[in-house]
Structures are given as structure tokens and as C-alpha cells.
Design goal:
single chain; 68 residues; mainly alpha
Length: 68
């Protein structure tokens, strides 16, 4: 998985991430700034998910994105 695509397109990706994880605020997304580990931590904090579930959810979400 090439997370650099997400980091490089963070402004465009924020809306898609917010669709998936609506409890994340704009401030959360600005602080995350495309860093996967920060995204994982914030999702765990907001949703109370375990680390393994969070990683799987992010991987699943990433796999559904169309990068061109």
C-alpha cells in the first residue's frame, strides 16, 4: 500500500475520510495532515476501536479509493 498517495492528496482526501469516519472533525483532519499513524490514533480515540480493527478499516477504505 502506497500511503504517499493519500498524504500527497490530503486536501482532496479529507472529504472522503470524513464521509467514512464522520466523528473526525476538521481540526482532527488538519492535525492528522495525511499521516496514517495519526489517522489511526484519532479513529481509535473517537470510535473506541482496537488497533487491529482500525488498521483493517483503513486498509479497506484505502482499497476502495480510485487513484489516478
Amino acid at each position: 500500500m502506497d500511503w504517499n498517495r493519500v498524504e500527497g492528496n490530503w486536501k482532496q482526501m479529507k472529504g472522503k475520510i470524513k464521509e467514512q469516519w464522520g466523528k473526525l472533525t476538521d481540526d482532527d483532519l488538519d492535525m492528522i495532515a495525511g499521516k496514517r499513524d495519526q489517522l489511526e490514533g484519532k479513529i481509535q480515540e473517537r470510535y473506541g476501536y482496537e488497533k487491529d480493527r482500525t488498521r483493517k478499516d483503513i486498509d479497506d477504505w484505502y482499497g476502495r479509493q480510485n487513484f489516478h
